[in-house]
């Protein structure tokens, strides 16, 4: 069964179409990485899947349930966790409160979810009472990923989690994602970092000008193929 299925999805802002005829299928426990140059519509696609932008045409299913037309909170209630590119952390709240605010309850145990996140990002446990706004850029990214992990999602959607992050922390992210994947979570991520994508993804899709122009299994030779689409 496809865990996420997207058929001929078209979306954009007001009357401007940004992405068109997007077809994607990801099975349970698989990881698909979307790559593409700046401004090709990757974030627009993720926001449309999450119900933050209206679907102009086509449809999206998660676990056979049509999610196009649902509100973002209804989609999140299906145990879909989304880490937006602009992070959306609350700078004046502590790290602990940021984790609590993002916790959706009922589907998992908060303390258990936190411990799962702290295995990968122990520094956050030491910083529980620190204001999130005072964290470093890399720590903020750890916090946004941890806020997703706490909910023990069935589908995890990440928008450029490695952006502006130093290599040693990026390695922690790939370890965390591979661990989450082993537990059966399906992952859809947008990335600019092809080496990171190689480490975590089973499949890749390259977008250009609002369309998917290549899609294949990730493997030997994928990096060169992907990079050939990314040259300006
Ligand atoms: N709120 C908005 N209103 C109008 N146009 C927008 C809005 N947000 C983004 N766009 C436009 O939509 C296009 C796609 O943007 P999007 O953020 O989806 O691209 P992206 O591939 O995620 O880029 P990046 O890698 O730089 O984040 C761009 O031309 C952008 O200017």
TrEMBL record:
A Pfam family assignment: ABC_tran
SUPFAM superfamilies: P-loop containing nucleoside triphosphate hydrolases
Keyword annotations: Amino-acid transport, ATP-binding, Nucleotide-binding, Transport
Keyword ATP-binding: yes
GO BP term, pick one: L-amino acid transport
Residues annotated as domain ABC transporter: 4-232
Cross-referenced CDD domains: ABC_TM1139_LivF_branched (cd03224)
Alphabetized InterPro entries for the sequence: AAA+_ATPase (IPR003593), ABC_transporter-like_ATP-bd (IPR003439), ABC_transporter-like_CS (IPR017871), BCAA_Transport_ATP-bd_LivF (IPR052156), P-loop_NTPase (IPR027417)
GO MF annotation, one: ATP hydrolysis activity
Domain of life assignment: Bacteria
UniProt-listed Gene3D superfamilies: P-loop containing nucleotide triphosphate hydrolases
Family: Belongs to the ABC transporter superfamily.
PANTHER family from the UniProt entry: HIGH-AFFINITY BRANCHED-CHAIN AMINO ACID TRANSPORT ATP-BINDING PROTEIN LIVF
Protein name: ABC transporter ATP-binding protein
């Amino acid at each position: 069964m496809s865990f996420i299925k997207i058929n001929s999805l078209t979306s954009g802002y007001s009357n401007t179409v940004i992405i068109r005829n997007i077809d994607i299928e990801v099975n349970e426990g698989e990881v698909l990485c979307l790559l593409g140059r700046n401004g090709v519509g990757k974030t627009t696609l993720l926001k449309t899947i999450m119900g933050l932008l209206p679907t102009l045409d086509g449809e999206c299913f998660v676990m056979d349930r049509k999610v196009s037309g649902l509100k973002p909170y209804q989609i999140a209630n299906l145990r879909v966790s989304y880490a937006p590119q602009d992070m959306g952390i609350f700078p004046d709240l502590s790290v602990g409160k940021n984790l609590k605010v993002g916790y959706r309850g009922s589907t998992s145990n908060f303390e258990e979810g936190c411990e799962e996140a702290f295995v990968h990002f122990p520094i956050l446990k030491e910083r529980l009472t620190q204001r999130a706004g005072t964290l470093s850029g890399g720590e903020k990214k750890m916090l946004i990923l941890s806020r997703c992990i706490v909910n023990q999602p069935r589908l995890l959607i990440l928008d450029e989690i490695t952006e502006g992050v130093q290599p040693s922390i990026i390695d922690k992210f790939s370890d965390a994602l591979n661990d989450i994947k082993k537990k059966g979570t399906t992952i859809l991520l947008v990335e600019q970092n092809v080496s990171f994508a190689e480490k975590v993804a089973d499949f890749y899709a390259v977008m250009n000008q609002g369309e998917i122009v290549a899609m294949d299994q990730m493997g030997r030779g994928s990096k060169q193929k992907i990079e050939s689409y990314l040259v300006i």
